[in-house]
Amino acid sequence: MNYSGLSLLSKMTLEEKVGQLAQIAGVPYESEQSEITGPVAEMGIPRKLLPIAGSVLGVSGAETVKRIQDNYLKENRLGIPLIFMVDVIHGFKTIFPIPLAIGASWDTDLAEESARIAAKEAAVSGVHVTFSPMVDLVRDPRWGRVMETTGEDKYLNERFAESFVRGYQNNNDYSDPYAIAACVKHFAGYGAPEGGRDYNTVDMSERQLREHYLSGYKAGIDEGAELVMTSFNTVDGIPATANKWLLDDVLRKEWGFDGVIITDWASLGETIPHGVAANEKEAAQKGIDATVDMEMMTFTYSNHLEELVEEGSVDEEQVDQAVLRILKLKNKLGLFENPYRTASVSDEGSIVFSEENRQKALEVAENSMVLLKNEQNTLPLVPNEEKIALIGPFGTDENLLGAWSWRGEPNTASQVLESMRKVVNEDNLLYSKGSNIEEITTEQLEEAVQTAEKADTIVLALGEHWEMSGEAASRTNIKLPDAQLQLIKRLSELKKPIVTVLFNGRPLDLNGIEEYSDAILEAWFPGTEGGEAVTNILFGKANPSGKLPMSFPENVGQVPIYYNRFNTGRPYESAPNDKYVSKYLDSSNYPKYDFGYGLSYSDFELSPVQLSKNEMTPGDEITASVTVTNKGERAGKEVVQLYIRDLVGEVVRPLKELKGFKKIHLEAGESEEVTFTVTEDMLRYYHPDQTFRSDAGEFEVFINNSSHTSHTETIVLTNK
């Protein structure tokens, strides 16, 4: 059909308009209304919505989507197609490493490729929109949803936000049948809940919100993201979903976003328990006034918007604008011409979970893993020159996919043991489970010891259960479960080299692991090709190149701990032996492993920082460079990182801030000059009056391979 938004709108009844603002789970379209049970039934989906709802949540599969769309269009008076939205977070069926791990790759090109593949698999399966990327900045590893973010730094998050949006939307080219629309989430500040507890209160100043937390969302929006999802938390005491300042003043008017704003699951209805709406009618009023377009799985709009319009509390123009934004998205995706879009059963068979896609998942996994420790060059291992005992619950565990691997099938993922058997012969590879993830028996422990006694080197595959991270998976204890701590402590008594491989969705407190491990490989939840990637790293087929996107604390009592912290009036460094400085009595001030840190099997040496000059004006620029040399015996990748510190500001400035990074590949013995351009806009920050500008004065420029660096030179910004 030919599309004209205003023409179509003029034909719609108010009830049909309000229907377009509803998103409902797919269950009622897949079964009879009388068969709906469980949480969806408890939500009380109004029957009247079924032929007029604007969107369906959580349905995929070409055959299913086509059937639902076909049946729906037979009932919809004006033939307005449904739009199908799902959570494609780190892959559709080919599962890539969790987003935190992709952040650890420091490779935005790989991130874009992973999103492109996910979009293609989703598109042929009938999906039009993904609820990704999640760009919430997070500094507290107790929060389970840290696994969905790319870490603690705004600059890194901005670059990955752009990459994911480009990948999903193919640079906003919807003539590409495999492009799907991206939804930036969760707006805003969701990653800073008090106590690291999911859905909890967020309380910070507007300046802090603008300085660190809003920029990731804006980067994704500026890249063209079609939708923004609201968050569950409060912003300045008002739930984000009903926050007119946040959604209308900042997002729409200040940033110019004219796409679709969608609530998170039931979050508009949750304004009632939050205590800012007395009932559903008030919730609907607050949502539409805040310019929320689509309500996910509560029905305050469906139940009350017509009444609010009729009594004059809501102008019908408000509803019209929301409907037009939704119709515009459907038109952009070509759904009026082809309501089934790219859904194809035959293409599902050739594209979804293809060998080509799995190979890219392997590459991303290898690049995402971080070598945290490697004493006496314990790694890489040499196949068949020593006996290796693989011990631990993750040696054969299929759940390497992580939370939000919605369509992934754990039994199709590569396992560590089966992958190691491809490179180590039967006589030189021993295996014992050692423990379950959270429990250990005497028999398991004895068998593990007996197995390890026969080996030269022990490889321990340890970690969190996949349900220990993700949504609603906050933890106050971020150590590994006691069963695994007991296992490694007992095996350490054998005085044999221990290589620990960690599978987890957050930074961990590694007490009880670090002191007993000669080498530690952070594998995260690595996805479909996780076992293969781990094996390639352990045996040197791949050289680790990942860097931490988030600091690992010494212990949970330091949390939140992050690299770009403020100095204090009594800094510990100024007088470490003085009692009256900012320090703990029972712990270091510093993380166990810093943001940006990661080892390699190569030995990279960086020269001192060289500046093209030391003084600049606002329209000027300075080049800062280092020469990187691979002193090792094998080729490898290094992430060269640029940090800047503003020495004196109108408000306290961070000790350093990431302003650039480049991942380079060097052959053994090869050198390369890496150059960054420093401009005045990189020196700007939010002042107390919320203006974003720089101050004249001195700035330190650091370039190194982690945030822990003293490689520095000073530049001066003048107003001349």
Output the strand order for the largest sheet.
Answer: 9-6-5-4-3-2-1-10
* Shape label: globular
Share in helix: 25-40%
Q: Largest beta sheet, briefly? A: 8 strands, parallel
Straight-line N-to-C gap: 61 Å
Strand content: 15-25%
User: Structural class, please?
Assistant: alpha/beta
Rg from alpha-carbon coordinates: 27 Å
How many beta-strand runs?
27
Describe the oligomeric state of these chains in a short phrase: single chain
The number of helical runs is: 21
Mean pLDDT over the full residue set? 95
- Unreliable stretches, pLDDT < 50, 5 or more residues? 33-40
Kindly summarize this structure in a few lines.
With 720 residues, the chain is an alpha/beta fold. It is built from 21 helices and 27 strands. Helices cover 28% and strands 18% of the residues.
Write the layout of secondary structure elements.
Layout: H1 5-11, H2 14-20, E1 22-25, H3 27-30, H4 38-43, E2 55-57, H5 62-75, E3 83-86, H6 99-105, H7 108-124, E4 129-130, H8 154-169, E5 181-187, H9 206-213, H10 215-222, E6 227-230, E7 234-235, E8 238-239, H11 244-254, E9 260-262, H12 271-274, H13 280-289, E10 295-296, H14 300-310, H15 316-332, H16 345-351, H17 355-368, E11 370-374, E12 388-391, H18 416-420, E13 429-432, H19 442-453, E14 457-463, H20 482-492, E15 498-503, E16 519-522, H21 530-538, E17 604-606, E18 610-611, E19 615-616, E20 621-630, E21 636-646, E22 657-666, E23 671-679, E24 685-686, E25 692-693, E26 697-704, E27 712-717
Parallel strand pairs: 1-2, 1-10, 2-3, 3-4, 4-5, 5-6, 6-9, 12-13, 12-14, 14-15, 15-16, 19-27
Antiparallel strand pairs: 7-8, 11-16, 17-20, 18-20, 20-23, 21-22, 21-26, 24-25, 26-27
